[in-house]
TrEMBL record:
<dbReference type="Pfam" id="PF08327">
    <property type="entry name" value="AHSA1"/>
</dbReference>
<comment type="similarity">
    <text>Belongs to the AHA1 family.</text>
</comment>
<feature type="domain" description="Activator of Hsp90 ATPase homologue 1/2-like C-terminal">
    <location>
        <begin position="23"/>
        <end position="131"/>
    </location>
</feature>
<dbReference type="InterPro" id="IPR023393">
    <property type="entry name" value="START-like_dom_sf"/>
</dbReference>
<protein>
    <submittedName>
        <fullName>SRPBCC domain-containing protein</fullName>
    </submittedName>
</protein>
<dbReference type="InterPro" id="IPR013538">
    <property type="entry name" value="ASHA1/2-like_C"/>
</dbReference>
Length: 152
């Protein structure tokens, strides 16, 4: 009996990445990323979200007629790293089957902050390319707005 050879094929990753230099300390950029009063300036929040700062375990939940979308803060390292895992109840599997996230990494040098944003990986979704495409636009817009808010 001959050996069976299995080949693995890597799917194309669907990860949006953006880098931007911000003329502000990491503490200021962190506030823009974690305080709802500032988040509303660069992203949408549910109307009933309130003004409590983000922290590990915070859930941001949008409830629509036939689905819900949840962002959960899963990594929270002040002034360094913020990760919000994304889940849409329309997706085929339960939330724990996915590792799709918005990740913000900050590195301060000489009063400036390098902000690295990753969004995805959407390749596991049947409509992954659609999520990727809309996240490309979000990545461009959000990083510019975060920069403007932190520098003013």
């Amino acid at each position: 009996m001959g050996a069976i050879t299995l080949k693995r094929y890597m799917s194309k990753q669907l990860i949006v990445e953006r880098d931007i230099t911000i003329d502000a300390p990491a503490a200021d950029v962190w506030d823009i990323l974690t305080l709802p009063v500032f988040i509303r300036g660069w992203d949408d929040l549910p109307e009933d979200f309130g003004d409590t700062p983000l922290q590990r375990g915070t859930e941001i939940k949008w409830t629509m007629k036939d689905k819900s979308v949840v962002l959960t803060v899963t990594d929270f390292e002040p002034h360094k790293r913020l990760k919000l895992n994304l889940y849409n109840s329309d997706w085929e599997n339960p939330a724990e089957a996915y590792d799709i996230a918005y990740t913000y990494t900050l590195q301060e040098t000489g009063g400036q902050t390098e902000l690295h944003v990753t969004i995805g990986d959407f390749q596991v979704l049947s409509k992954g390319q659609d999520y990727f495409d809309s996240s490309e636009e979000f990545g461009d817009n959000a990083t510019q707005k975060i920069k403007e808010l932190a520098e003013n």
